[in-house]
Design a protein that fits this description.
This protein is an all-beta fold. Among the domains are: about 120 residues, Sandwich (Immunoglobulin-like), CATH 2.60.40; about 100 residues, Immunoglobulin-like, CATH 2.60.40. The chain is built from no helices and 25 strands.
Length: about 375
């Protein structure tokens, strides 16, 4: 099915810029759009910008714009003169009752062809951004490709349009009603990555030695940064599904898995999950948890107290290569760190993040790092 939008022109040569009451007129359809831009800058809305040439006559011209069966937001429709903005004025807009249409009254001070831009928000045309990434054999960089999947259920056909996101290169593409198109629009062949093991004390068991299997799988991710030296960094990267592969060193690839990334602003990092690893072992124990500074009510009941707590963790790397572990610890409530053997970053009021670099093992002996935290929680209720 072809285009469903119609624009017609009634050229009424009137001496003044005021128009007396008259019947709505429809004449022959105007030529097709000269150029169309589909703007996807806003994740929630699609903005269409199209250019057309109106043959205007001196006086007031009526332009009828209708969109039967097309998901246009009527309140979003705008018209702007491009060639002679000082000689063309939009006087008013009227909406015929019961119709998907509007009528512009445009005043021109002469007879000429005028290029106009018509813009509107179009519903039921959406997009997905997907990624495909191939890691090199050494897992130091990614060959990253990004694809736009455009789906059109708006009721409108676009024979050819310039599609723009807020990053990547604009590209020409036609898309008909009820059609889905996928296009490669961003390629970064050498994005540096860091392989990260992440251990979260709220998500993984503390004391593996007490379990049937001591070796607990630790989630592994590739970390990349949206910055210029990575071949990125010009725009925020949209969230989307990423499929990850690895070069097997013999001309083929290994499928590692897939993950969904959130929006990545310029300068920020993202991490994509590729599986679990048993090459690192974390053994953590609470060595002390005692109440201090106890406060009681008149009935000698404990109402508040502080704590004196000690946690130790042993991190072992059984790999033949170095590793970087992100260790996440949680201390609820109001607290104070008394001593800590490793540096950390506060992600929020109760979350501590440790970035722990581990050398490769030597022979049969794993590389070992140890953590000891001594802290006090304040004003704890029983």
């Amino acid at each position: 099915m072809k285009r469903r939008m119609i624009m017609t022109l009634a050229a009424a040569v009137l001496p003044a810029l005021t128009l007396p009451a008259q019947a709505r007129t429809k004449l022959a359809a105007l030529p097709d759009r000269d150029a169309t831009v589909i703007r996807l800058d806003n994740p929630a809305f699609t903005l269409i910008e199209e250019q057309r040439v109106l043959t205007l006559q001196r006086g007031v011209n009526q332009v009828d714009f209708s969109w039967q069966g097309v998901a246009i937001d009527p309140d979003s429709i705008r018209l702007a003169a491009l060639d002679h903005p000082d000689r063309v004025r939009l006087l008013n807009v009227s909406y015929p009752p019961g119709e998907a249409a509007l009528v512009w009254e445009i005043a021109a001070d002469g007879d000429f062809a005028e290029t106009v831009r018509i813009s509107y928000l179009l519903g039921q045309i959406d997009r997905l951004v997907t990624y495909q990434a191939v890691a090199d054999k050494q897992e130091t960089k990614l060959n990253l490709s990004s694809y736009l999947v455009l789906r059109n259920f708006s009721g409108e056909d676009f024979d050819m349009a310039r599609v723009r996101l807020d990053y990547g290169e604009a590209f020409e593409q036609g898309i008909a009603h009820e059609q889905t198109r996928q296009t490669l629009f961003l390629k970064a062949p050498e994005v540096p990555i860091t392989k990260i093991w992440t251990w979260d004390s709220d998500l993984l068991p503390w004391d593996p030695e007490r379990l049937e299997s001591r070796n607990i799988g630790i989630p592994v991710r590739y970390r990349m940064v949206n910055e210029p030296k990575s071949g990125l960094g010009e725009f925020a990267l949209w969230g989307g599904k990423m499929r990850l592969y690895q070069d097997d060193g013999s001309g083929g690839t290994i499928f590692l898995g897939e993950d969904h990334t959130a929006l990545v602003p310029v300068g920020e990092k993202t991490e994509v999950y590729i599986g679990d690893s048993r090459d690192l072992v974390i053994t953590q124990r609470k060595m002390q948890d005692r109440q201090i500074n106890i406060r009681r009510n008149k009935k000698e009941q404990v109402v508040l107290y502080d704590t004196d707590e000690i946690i130790t963790a042993k991190i072992e790397n059984f790999k033949d290569s170095p590793a970087v572990l992100t260790m996440i610890q949680h201390i609820p409530g109001q607290w104070e760190m008394k001593s800590c053997s490793l540096d950390y970053t506060l992600k929020d009021a109760s979350t501590l993040e440790f970035e722990i670099a581990l050398p490769a093992r030597k022979g049969d002996k794993p590389a070992v790092r140890e953590l000891e935290m001594r802290y006090s929680r304040r004003n704890v209720r029983p």
